[in-house]
Amino acid sequence: MATSPPAGADKALEKLGLVRDIDLALHLPLRYEDETRVVPIASLHDGEVGQIEGVVTTSRIQFRPRRQLVVTLQDESGDLVLRFLHFYPSQQKSFAEGRRMRVRGEARGGFFGLEMVHPSFKAADTALPTALTPVYPSTVQLSQAVLRKAVAAGLARADLEEILPAGSTPAHLPTLREALLRLHQPAPGLESQVLEDRSHPAWHRLKFDELLAQQLSQLRAKREREQQRAPAFAAPRSGLHDALLAALPFQLTAAQHRVAEEIARDLGRGVPMHRLLQGDVGSGKTVVAALAATVVIGAGWQCALMAPTEILAEQHLKKLVGWLSPLGITVAWLTGSRKGKARTKMLAQVESGEAALVVGTHAVIEDQVRFARLGLAIIDEQHRFGVTQRLALRAKLGESNAQGEALEPHMLMMSATPIPRTLAMTLFADLDVSTIDSLPPGRTPIETRLFADAKRDEVIARIGDEIARGRQVYWVCPLVEASAVLDLQNATAAHAQLCAAFPGHMIGLLHGRMSAAEKTAVMALFASGQIAVLVATTVIEVGVDVANASLMVVEHAERFGLSQLHQLRGRVGRGTTASICVLLYSAPLSDTAKARLKALLETGDGFEIARRDLEIRGPGELLGARQSGAALLRFADPVADEEILLEARRVADRLLDVDPEAAARHVERWLGGRSNYLNA
Ligand code: ADP
Ligand code: MG
Known about the structure:
Blueprint: H1 9-15, H2 21-25, E1 31-33, E2 49-62, E3 68-75, E4 78-84, H3 89-94, E5 100-106, E6 108-110, E7 113-117, E8 120-123, E9 133-135, H4 144-157, H5 176-184, H6 192-196, H7 201-227, H8 239-247, H9 254-267, E10 274-279, H10 285-298, E11 302-306, H11 310-324, E12 331-334, H12 340-352, E13 357-360, E14 374-379, H13 387-398, E15 410-415, H14 421-427, E16 432-436, E17 446-452, H15 456-468, E18 472-476, H16 484-501, E19 506-510, H17 516-527, E20 531-536, E21 549-554, H18 562-569, E22 579-585, H19 591-602, H20 606-617, H21 619-622, H22 642-658, H23 660-671, H24 675-678
Parallel strand pairs: 4-7, 10-15, 10-16, 11-13, 11-14, 12-13, 14-15, 17-22, 18-20, 18-21, 19-20, 21-22
Antiparallel strand pairs: 1-9, 2-3, 2-5, 3-4, 5-8, 6-7
Helix pairs in contact: 5-7, 7-22, 7-23, 8-10, 9-10, 19-20, 22-23
The structure holds adenosine-5'-diphosphate and magnesium ion.
C-alpha cells in the first residue's frame, strides 16, 4: 500500500465495520461518478453535473454577502463562475490566475449566468481516469478520497479465491474476484445504470454469496441444535393438558389445533424446539402457549413466559392464572418494578421449582433468576426484543438448569406480524414456523373509516353514542419519540377535550411516562368497565384484550406504521359486537402515508397487511431489531431477490453435507464474528 490513511481514519473505518481486508473489498459503491470525460463549458445546462477544464482568469475574495472565494474559469467555449464559501489558503493558491484547472460539480443558474458552488477540483495536467469513479457509503469523518484508497488497498490484499466448490454457484455468474473488480473499478463504457440498479451479474454474484452465507449460518445453527438434547415430553400427556382443554370456555379452532399439535410433537422429540408461532392479532396464540405450558408442567418441569412490556406481561399473567391456578399450578410474577420481599419470595419459588410457571418482562432472564428445571421458554412479540436481549436469553437458557441436567430448554417464540413464507425462510432459517391462519369464529369484522381531523367533533359525538350504550372506547395518540413532553401534550389535550365532552363518565389517560403501577391501575379500571374512554399513547399497541371496547379512534393516523395501525386496530373487535376503527388524519399526506391508510381501509387480513407493508417499507424496517445493525442484509433484498434466495437455500443444504469446511470458510468471509447476531 502506498500511503497509510490519516490519523483517525482507522477509527472511522472501524465504525463502518471495515476492519479486515475482506470487509473493505466487500464495501461496495452506492453509485459512480463519470470523471473520464471533460465537456465544454458552453455545453453545461442548469442542474447538470459536469466536468470541465479551463484557465483561471480571475480569482478574488469577495466579502458580500459573506466572505467567499470567487473564481472565473474559461475554456474555448465560454466561462463559468466558481464559488467557495469555505476555503483554505491552499485552495486559493490552486486557483491562482493563469493556472489550468479541472473542476467537477453541478452547474446552477446564478446571477451572472451558470456557476458551480464547491466543485471538486484538480490540476488540469492530472491524467483523466479511465474507469468510473466509485462513491462509497461513508460518514462525515471519512472523505471519499481516503475511503477509496483504503478500499482499493483492501481489495488488492484480500484473499478472493473461490471458496465454493465448482458447480455450487450459478453457472453464468462471474467469480467473486471478477465481480468485485467490476463493481469497484468498472471498465470505461460500462453504463453506471446497470451497476447502480444492482441488476448486473456482478451484483447477482454478490447477492448470492451473501444470501448463501446467511443461509449457511442459520442452517448450521439449526443442525447444531439437532445434536443437543432437551427433555422429551412424549405422549401420553399428564391430565393437565386435557383438564385445561376441558375448562376452556371455547373450542379451539382447527388452526389452533394444528399448531398446538406441531408444538406438542416438537416437545416430544428430545431435541430443543425453536419454533416461531405466528398469527394475526386476536388469532388466539395465548391459549396455544398455555397448552404447551401444561405439557411441560405436567411432566414436572418449569415454563417461563416473557413479554416485552409490563402491561402485556400482566395481561398474560391474568389470563394464565385464570386458566392454570384452578388446575393447581403456582404462577410466579417477575418484572422490573417488582422489588423487595415480594421479589425475594418469587425468586425462591422459582429456584425451588415450586413456581411451575414464571411470567414477566425481561426481568425473567436477569442474573438473579435461577430455575430449578426450565423445560420451556415462551417469548411473546419476539420481534420487539432487541438482538442483545435475545442473545442474553440464549445464554440464560444455556445455564438455566442449576440442578446439573445437561438438557436445553425448548423455545417458543410468538409474533403477531405474520411474514410471507420466503421472508420467514431467510430471516428465520434456523427456526421452524407454525402459523395460525384463521381467527376464532364469531368475530364481527372491524369497520375502518378515515376522517380528516376537521371532523373531530363528529367523531366525538359518535363516542357519545357508543358509551351511552355501555360500550368502551380507545383514543390513541401517536408517540412522539423525540419529545416526551410533546407526546404528553398530545395525549393530555385529547384527554381534556374528552373530559369536557363527557362530564358524567370516567376518562382514563395512559402514557409512557407513567410508572408501571400507575399504568396497571388505569388498565384495571378500563378492563373492569369503569373507565369509558381510555386515551393512550401507543403503550396499548400489543396484546391488550378488553372485549367490551367497540370503538377505536386513532389521532394522527398518518404518523403510524402500517403494521402498528393494524395491531392497534386489533384491540377492538374482540367481542361479538360490531366494532369501528376511526383513523383521523391531518393533511397533507405523504405518498407512503396514503398507501398505508389505503391498505387499512381495503383489508383486515394481517397477512395481506404484512405483504403491503413489505412493499411500502422493505423488509429491514418491518422486522425491527432482528434485522437491524449488523444483521442487516447489505446487498440482497429477500423479497425482490426471491429466486436467488431459493437457489442459495438449495446450495446451502447440499454444501453443509458435502463440504462443511468450505461452508465454514464462506460464512467466516462474509459474516466474520457477526453470525451470532443472525441467529439470535
Ligand atoms: P393473540 O393471538 O393476539 O395473542 P389472544 O391469545 O389474546 O390473541 O386471543 C384473543 C382473544 O380470543 C382472547 O380473548 C382469547 O381468549 C380468545 N380466543 C382464543 N381462542 C379462541 C377460540 N378458539 N374461540 C373463541 N375465542 C378464542
Ligand atoms: Mg398476544
